[in-house]
Design a protein that fits this description.
Blueprint: E1 7-12, H1 15-25, E2 32-34, E3 38-44, E4 47-53, H2 54-61, E5 74-79, H3 82-95, E6 104-105, E7 111-116, E8 122-127, H4 131-135
Parallel strand pairs: 1-4, 5-8
Antiparallel strand pairs: 2-3, 3-4, 6-7, 7-8
Helix pairs in contact: 1-3
């Protein structure tokens, strides 16, 4: 198996709420938008973020998604400056993100903050001055 990820799929409880948050609030442009089924966003050259209505997820996977608490995964959006972190966190707050935390300088040299989408998935917004952090910027 090649070392790569093609799709990141998150099961969401309310696809309409996710659409309002990502499309209307954050201004993302879906590549595929099937109402009551799935939203897909191209998030990198060969990577798609898929928000899948949990009914379809359950039907295909055979098990409902675990709910309650903080999902044990974070998604990261890296930006080129510390000020960019604050800008994106404010945009998320205006879009209706819950649990928007204040950004903080981290002991590893970066500056990060977090917000939760409508299903509680945590997004890290990060300025990472290190080589790997800079390598993922557009």
């Amino acid at each position: 198996m090649d070392q790569r990820v093609s799709f990141i799929t998150l099961a969401v409880a309310d696809l309409g709420a996710s659409r309002r948050f990502y499309v209307d609030g954050l201004g993302w442009d879906p590549e595929l938008d099937e109402p009551d089924e799935v939203l897909m966003f191209r998030v990198a050259d060969k990577v798609v973020l898929s928000l899948w209505d949990e009914r379809g997820f359950t039907a295909e996977i055979g098990h409902p998604p675990a709910r309650g608490g903080v999902p044990p995964i974070t998604l990261a959006h890296n930006v080129a400056t510390a000020r960019g972190v604050d800008t994106v966190l404010e945009q998320a707050r205006v879009a209706g993100a819950s649990e928007v935390g204040e950004a903080a300088k981290r002991e590893w040299g970066g500056y990060t903050g977090y917000f939760a989408d409508p299903d509680g998935f945590r997004w890290e917004v990060a300025y990472n001055p290190g080589e790997i952090g800079q390598s993922v910027l557009p």
